[in-house]
Amino acid sequence: MSIRQTGVTDIVLPVSIEPVSGFKVRRVLPSRYGRMVGPFVLFDQMGPAVFNTSQGLDVGPHPHIGLAAMTHLIDGEIVHRDSLGKVQALRPGEVSWMTAGSGIVHSERTPEARASGSNFFGIQAWVALPCRHEEAAADFAHYSEPKIPRTCARGVEFTLIAGASDGLVSPVRTFSDMVFAEIVLTSGARYQVKPEHHERAVYVVAGEVEIVGRPDSCREAELILLEPGAEIVLKAPAFHSTRLMLLGGEPFSEPRHVYWNFVSSSTERIEQAKTDWRERRFPEVPGEEEFTPLPED
């Protein structure tokens, strides 16, 4: 049976990245199959990791333009600080949505892990902004767990982080049509992926998932690219649970260029951002003194 007969176009295998903080990051976007899925231009899995006392994540102040960034935690805690003066701890079940737009600088650290040790596991995704919103004012919004829509039925827990799907609408303010959701399937449970969005993909965070009609299972850290309009059915194996992320939306008519933390429809805008960062023209993060150089510097 071919991949396309089951509504799947390709399976993207992750590229492993070893960051400064010492734990594994697995990246599936961008990939050789394409740079984006809907508006999603980057998708990373961070960990799982175990931090001993004095260990932790320390990502110093760094800039972004032209995107919205979101971290979804499964375990642990991150403290976000930005050039708007916002300081916010992010924990599992909560949503923090940072709109970079014309430019923002932020840091991401785990002070609690350094103090007493901690587990850490999460997903980080970047969403490119439509051309008319690429220079929107920077913003940071945090949503507590009770504000995020969730349904639980027949062994399926569906949490809508952003966008709209399955009759739910997230309160997270976005600039384009999209879906970003977590799906947890208990033993043998099934979930039918809705055809509401043109481009869709399913990422296997933990466990394995069966695609009904396909002989083999998809495994942890694989990104399943779906055919437009296909109504595929996902199934957890017997006696095991599965954690998935659903992402997608309408594709942009213009390509996006990515350099480091900068995303734009214009290469000239990225060059300007590089110059602005080198010459310290981005706003500073209160309480932070580090400077992160451009990769090429």
Explain what this protein looks like in three dimensions.
This protein is mostly beta strands. Strands 1, 13, 14, 15, 16, 18, 20 and 22 form an eight-stranded antiparallel β-sheet that branches. It has a seven-stranded antiparallel β-sheet with strand order 2-3-4-11-6-9-12. The protein is globular, with a radius of gyration of 19 Å. The chain has helices at residues 111-116, 267-278, and strands at 8-12, 15-17, 25-29, 40-51, 58-64, 67-75, 78-82, 87-90, 95-99, 104-109, 118-128, 139-143, 150-153, 156-165, 168-169, 178-185, 190-192, 199-206, 210-211, 223-226, 233-235, 242-249, 257-259, 262-264. The longest helix has 12 residues, at 267-278.
The backbone outline, from C-alpha atoms, is globular
Q: Output the radius of gyration.
A: 19 Å
Major beta-sheet overview = 8 strands, antiparallel
* Proportion in helices: under 10%
| DSSP strand content | over 45%
Compute the number of helices. Answer: 2
Could you give the count of β-strands?
24
Instruction: Note the gap between the termini.
Output: 49 Å
* Uncertain ranges: none
Instruction: Label the structural class.
Output: mainly beta
Average residue-wise pLDDT = 93
Helix-strand string: EEEEEEEEEEHEEEEEEEEEEEEEEH
